[in-house]
DNA sequence: ATGACGGTGTGGCACCGA
């Protein structure tokens, strides 16, 4: 089984690239973030023609998440139970597999702007709420994958400049503690189950030749539950779409299981 | 570095992202 996550930074702009990428990478599940469009503008029929079912949670201008799946999706849940949020950041769904149901939680984590800002405070509250949500989901769905744009570089090696950016956004101790708290629920960062090239990143700033200089961050992640972990055979970042003429600033991350 | 680059909106620029 192949599962991927990709922050597309506007699906309206990136749809042709998504369709091309799915032809080259016929994954079972593709989780998208930053759709930047409302549900009525989601290209449901086009993706259906490509063979994919969709569960969508859109929003005008900002945020928006979707799960694309070759197999039908059930028990779709939007955002976090008991956490009133005007922003569309979380969509979960269940997909049947030969080994039993798999719960998929696709998230676009809060950016947070800067420590001390209102947006950072929102990020912390959102992370608290997400932790409780994932804990509850795990209790009923032992086979679970939590993936998306986490907006956290978990360790120094996940940043192009860990010293210069120490305690700045994506690098703060608080954000990293929240990431570890998710791991403490029994989740594993699938990317770190395998030997990886040094300076592996999933996002690069559009400015200042960020990608060409590999000045990036690894902030897009795929976390797998204990039941799923022994099934994981590979996890990698696909840098190819970042080389497209009009790229997203994020690259897809891919997971393979037996 | 109040910069850069790219997307969206009802715009002539501001706001946001990371």
Which features would summarize this protein structure in a list?
258 residues; alpha+beta; 6-stranded mixed sheet; 4 helices; 14 strands; globular; DNA-binding
Silhouette = globular
How helix-rich are the residues, as a percent range? 10-25%
Strand content: 25-35%
Rg estimate, integer Å:
17 Å
Question: What would your notes on this structure say?
Answer:
- By secondary structure, the chain is an alpha+beta fold.
- Helices cover 21% and strands 28% of the residues.
- It has helices at residues 11-24, 44-49, 118-140, 173-183; strands spanning 2-7, 29-33, 53-57, 65-69, 73-78, 90-97, 100-108, 144-149, 188-189, 203-204, 216-217, 220-224, 232-237, 253-257.
- The strands form three sheets. Strands 3-4-2-1-14-13 form a six-stranded mixed β-sheet. The chain has a six-stranded mixed β-sheet with strand order 5-6-7-8-12-9, covered by helices on one side.
- The radius of gyration is 17 Å and the shape is globular.
- The structure holds one DNA strand of 18 nucleotides.
Question: What is the fold's blueprint, element by element?
Answer:
Elements: E1 2-7, H1 11-24, E2 29-33, H2 44-49, E3 53-57, E4 65-69, E5 73-78, E6 90-97, E7 100-108, H3 118-140, E8 144-149, H4 173-183, E9 188-189, E10 203-204, E11 216-217, E12 220-224, E13 232-237, E14 253-257
Parallel strand pairs: 1-2, 7-8
Antiparallel strand pairs: 1-14, 2-4, 3-4, 5-6, 6-7, 8-12, 9-12, 10-11, 13-14
The protein binds one DNA strand of 18 nucleotides through loops.
